[in-house]
Amino acid sequence: MTINSRLIYWLPRIICILAISFISVFALDAFDPNLTLWQQIQGFAIHLVPSFILLLILLIAWKRELLGGIIFLIIGIVLSPLIYMHNYRMNGSVGTSLLIITTITFPFILVGVLFILGYLNKRKKAKVMD
Fold this sequence. Notes:
It is a single chain. By secondary structure, the protein is an all-alpha fold. The chain contains six helices and no strands. It has helices spanning 3-25, 37-47, 49-63, 65-91, 94-104, 106-129. The chain starts with a helix and ends with a helix.
């Protein structure tokens, strides 16, 4: 495995883990001193549902790069306008809304593209070996 092959293999996985970790940080807003401990734990668990779904997709992508890449690409592309419109309604700023979707959805688009490239790279090497 060459350095380029290793990079194509590991880069989407590392970026995805970092992006999921970043998304998970938003679950911390479930902790409110005015709520009981049980309510805080329930809120925290509910806020982590997107992270668990993304982790499941990462596990799929780890073994089936093409499928995972397509799913991550779809997630990033579909969520971009939704998150943009939500944030634009909240703050009225195009720049801030673009920055937010760049921060939240762009990593998943990048991960999707990298998983697909990894799949194509692996397929190309398999053809060369035949």
